[in-house]
Write a structure and sequence with these properties.
31% helix; 6-stranded mixed beta sheet; 10 helices; magnesium; 8-stranded mixed beta sheet; Rossmann fold; single chain; 279 residues; alpha/beta; Hypothetical Protein, Haloacid Dehalogenase-like Hydrolase, Chain: A, domain 2
Length: 279
């Protein structure tokens, strides 16, 4: 029995342009109209995801910053976990970020995306929501009310960053990759899976009735929590190795989530995604 749908965004529900395609949007709207609760679980900022949800046109629970924030339909914040301010002030230091200045440092505050330099190439990820960053000297931030620190850079540079974090903080932080060039840092008691359990408890739904979709390392706990997990065919190879028994579905650029949902919930009509026949 499938009672709740939880899904990641980038590499999963969104296409290769980091946008919603019409076939996926129509599929999710059909399920929302049937009364199936939708949970979006992502590393993105709440304000960004709220914009994507509005484009999608459904009432959804929003798990953002990898589980550091949860908002109910209607935008009430119902769950929040912040990094320790002292840790934040340390995490923005150039010697910890590493990469000889090449790594871009970001802070996710309650209502703002703060960044240490202009990086207009990042805005392509936010076309649906229109969410934009604010540039500031992050070393001047007091570290308060920060859900996530995000490092963006080449994988080799981020490997150095991760080593710096491990050396200084050990297991006191939750450090994970959302993309090969995105290293994300939250407080140790944060994960998508923990946040999903919080939502399921609120809905009075057992995890065994939850369907979940993901594609990267920050989805491990999400997929382990849901009773019916599915991994994208385009998933990170390390995730495939970590969760070898999770079945794989189609690619995100072929509306793989939508096609799988149509099979699970027996949605049959003439609407089809480009290049594919109707289910």
């Amino acid at each position: 029995m499938y009672s709740v749908i939880a899904t990641d965004l980038d590499g999963t529900l969104l296409n290769s342009d980091h946008q919603l395609d019409p076939f996926t949007a129509e599929t999710v709207r059909t399920l929302d109209a049937r009364g199936v609760p939708i949970v979006i679980a992502t590393g993105r900022h709440y304000r960004d995801v709220a914009g994507i949800r509005d484009v999608l046109g459904v009432d959804a629970y929003l798990i953002t910053s990898n589980g550091a924030r949860v908002h109910a339909p209607g935008d009430e914040r119902i769950y929040s976990r912040d990094l320790d301010p002292a840790a934040v002030r340390r995490l923005v230091q150039p010697e910890l970020a590493g990469g000889e200045g090449r790594v871009i440092v970001n802070l996710f505050a309650d209502d703002a995306w703060l960044i240490d330099r202009h990086a207009p190439e990042l805005l392509v990820f936010h076309q649906d929501s229109g969410f934009k960053y604010e540039v500031m000297d992050l070393r001047e931030h007091d570290g308060m009310n920060i859900a996530k620190v995000l490092y963006i850079g080449e994988p080799a540079d981020l490997k150095e960053t991760a080593a710096n974090l491990e050396r200084e903080f050990g297991d006191a932080l939750y450090v994970t990759y959302s993309l090969p060039d995105c290293l994300e840092v939250m407080t140790a008691d944060v994960s998508k899976g923990r946040a999903l359990r919080f939502v399921l408890d609120r809905l009075k739904v057992d995890p065994s009735q939850c369907v979940a979709f993901g594609d990267n390392m920050n989805d491990i706990d999400l997929l382990e929590t849901a009773g019916h997990p599915f991994m994208m065919n385009n998933a990170n190879p390390d995730l495939i190795t970590r969760l070898p028994n999770v079945p794989r579905v189609g690619n995100n650029f072929e509306a793989g989530v939508a096609h799988q949902l149509r099979k699970l919930f027996d949605i049959r009509d003439e609407l089809a995604s480009p290049g594919q026949a109707p289910d």
